[in-house]
Amino acid sequence: ARDPGSLARWLCGALVVRGVVAVLALPRSRRELLQLDFLAAALQIPFLSLLDTRGPLPFRAQQSPFHFHMERQSSLDTLVDVLVSVLQANDWQETNLVLCHPWDVSGFLSLWARRSQLFLRTILDLGYLEEPGATSYLQQHGESFRALSSPVLVLGCDLRRARLIFQAAEESGLLPQEFHWMLGSPLSAGELQTEGLPLGLLAYGEVSRPPLELFIQDAVELVSRAIGSAARVRPDLALLQTMVNCNDRRRAGGESSGLFLSRFMANTSFHGRTGTVRVENATLVRSEQQFRVWSLRRDSRGEPTWVTVGTWHHGHLELEEGAWQSQRPRARPSQGPRMKLRVVTLVEHPFVFTREADEDGSCPAGQLCLDPGTNDSAALDALFEELGAENGSVPREYKKCCYGYCIDLLEKLAEDMPFDFQLYIVGDGKYGAWKNGRWTGLVGDLLSGTAHMAVTSFSINSARSKVIDFTSPFFSTSLGILVRTKDTASPIGAFMWPLHWTMWVGIFVALHMTALFLTLYEWKSPYGMTPHGRNRMKIFSYSSALNLCYAILFGRTVSSKTPKCCTGRFLMNLWAIFCLLVLSSYTANLAAVMVGDKTFEELSGIHDPKLHHPSQGFRFGTVWESSAEEYIKKSFPEMHEYMRRYNVPTTPAGVTMLKTEPPKLNAFIMDKSLLDYEVSIDSDCKLLTVGKPFAIEGYGIGLPQNSPLTSNLSEFISRYKSAGFIDLLHDKWYKMVPCGKRVFAVTE
């Protein structure tokens, strides 16, 4: 093997003297990478190396302006940026650290100290211990687990060692699910496993990494672009090598061609095959990288699965819709002889009604609930503390009496489980949707820890199920369409509606013309009923002809004179046939018009063309941030875009707009269970649901993810269904008003 000086002189003769202006190198180890740094400085031409490395480079950046290193694997800087973004997204200012050393973490920690203000507190350091030694170490330091506080960053540990840590924590009396754990070492999507890992665990890793061939193509393009840019400025320096003697590298005046080209390479960026390629810190070439952040959740079947909760791209963490807020710490229900829970609800008839409390603040029927118009946890704590105090003073306008289907169910659950509860109405009056980077309504209160439970007509859908838990459904329903029958009052001229005015004019013109010709035929005939006829005692005049024609038209038997001549009698029969046809058509049209005047807006269902291609003036809407709006937004985006302007804050508001004169809505889409109730209490019986049901769903009780109450509540709800208690609730709140039967008849 040659010494470094001999190797440099040999390469100088083989490359530089022959006019090579740049070198693309593919080292196989960090040792060879260090050798390339020496050769680049010795030969004074740009070297572009490409190697998978993790940890600090074996040479100092900016030490040699000639050695450019292209990173294919994520650098420590990038990993620190990703982790800091995740911790900041959760508002974690202090994080516990559990260390392993499969790869050198010292550089990582020093870089963290320089780039982040977040505090890391090392609790355990497993060092380089193998599995038996690590297990023994964890058993000896069990007290360290009891000092843990959420969150915990497991840094440098693979999944095998991480399982040992979670197992040791559980053996120390801690439930891993009660903490926020995050794996600090990046994983690939194929390495993600679920066995032995706690729910809520966060992991991250690079995705969509291009193959080596694309990195090589971008490296070549970087050099070619730099040469092209340099040639436009100084072609003599860019294209001709200034070093002609390897033993004498000195050049009289000016910079070398290698340094000249290096300056252009350091300022070159472009969009290549691997994404955006740029040079940082003068010599580090980086391409675009994308990371995914995953969380271990339960799927719809209850099995643990990894769910994407965020994407790190272009230096920023983009959160998946709704999947992130559940990572924040939340208040726990107080334990004791009877649990004390805070329950949030939303007024929706017949599931939840409200009325004013008595003067002394009590509720003879139903449950006392607060309507403070806020979801601030501290404000609610203060209000309920005042409410429980002997001399507490809560503003009277905040006190309401809540009752209804869901309140009866809540009282039954509180009696059987048992638990005590504090009830309040959601501050913004919404079910909950992902808006402006956060969840609103009931979902937001559960995620923030303001409430332990949400009880109302709370639809179970996929978006909400990603961030909160639901019990088994206690009420099954679907979405429906509510319309209003048209007004039945008809004006005095309604009898003329079946025929167009031109038809009416034509009939009466024909009548008078027929009477005229009957008179003329009778008077011209030698057999007619005229003074010139055969001694007739009566005279057939024009008035006689009019009397006859009107009698035939209206089908009335009156005393009239009939023509005696054959022509007149033939014309009279033609007129009679014409009148029969007109009368039959009029009768049929009159029935259709009068029935049509009492009909409703005919819609076959959600796929009706009137909804997908609404005509001018046809208006329909739903409730803001409800499951109905979420379904339409996801399934029919164009329809949702049209109806957004007509959406309303609550179901009663939509019904009111449907019943106004003139109506502000032609159709209202919402949960059919709510629409059925509105139909049943309509005193005018003008409302009805139409079309086929769609989007079958259920109502469940909402709880924070991994709540210990979920399984117990679901079990009790199943018992209530079997025992008939749920049916009793339905009969109590639905079968009580006059228009109820019509709802189901029309829908069927």
TrEMBL record:
Annotated catalysed reactions: Na(+)(in) = Na(+)(out); Ca(2+)(in) = Ca(2+)(out)
Residues annotated as site: Interaction with the cone snail toxin Con-ikot-ikot: 633
Positions contributing to L-glutamate binding: 459, 464, 627, 671
Main localization of the protein described in the UniProt heading: membrane
Transmembrane segments: 6-26, 495-518, 539-558, 570-595
InterPro entries: Glu/Gly-bd, Iono_Glu_rcpt_met, Ionotropic_Glu_rcpt, Iontro_rcpt_C, Peripla_BP_I
Membrane topology: Multi-pass membrane protein
Location of the Ionotropic glutamate receptor L-glutamate and glycine-binding domain: 395-448
Protein source organism: Rostratula benghalensis (greater painted-snipe)
PANTHER family recorded: IONOTROPIC GLUTAMATE RECEPTOR
Protein family per UniProt: Belongs to the glutamate-gated ion channel (TC 1.A.10.1) family.
Cysteine disulfide links: 685-739
UniProt protein name: Glutamate receptor
Keyword Kinase part of the UniProt annotation: no
